[in-house]
Amino acid sequence: MDQVDPREIASGVLTATRDVFSTMLNLPAEPDSARQEPAIPETFDGVIALVGIAGTWTGTGRISCSSHLACQIAGGLLMTEYPAVNEEVLDAMAEMTNMIIGNVKTILEERLGPLALSTPTVIFGRNFKTRSAGVLEWTMIPFRCGDEVMEVRFSLVPTNSFRTRRIGRKFFTCSRNRFLWSRLSLHCGRGVGSIQMTVREWFLGF
Fold it and tell me: How many separate domains does the chain show?
């Protein structure tokens, strides 16, 4: 088998997201139609969380939303109001992503065998892009959360077709030989084209 049916991935994402939002967050999450999207980096404002998948299959799960929705998600998970994104909000986004993508992994393991989950990377800022090496196409499902939209993306390919050394390598990510986390403030350029972003990462060396 050289690929997983996108409908199977979409079904897993749908089930996992609904379960987490209903049981852990107590927030609405109404899905729209799943679709396939080319993995072309686009400029984004808000919060993006990514988790890598490893094993006989290699991939990445990615969840993106506005900063306002990220605060709502953190509030639902931690039972506290957050007027702005802070470290607790980024941690909550990491935990939610870990739960959703982890549940998708568990569903897929029934047919694909054991898979491993990396620790999450969370990026918050304005006018930035992310890229996961080896990902050519995403299975994407948008979820309507009140007046906001959260997008869940998932990509999975056989490991023997993945030609890079590291799995799910992200923009602004480096490797380490042990677990650690860092919080970086990046300022690139000036004026309208400037990039201001906060990256909270959990690095795992391979």
Answer: 1
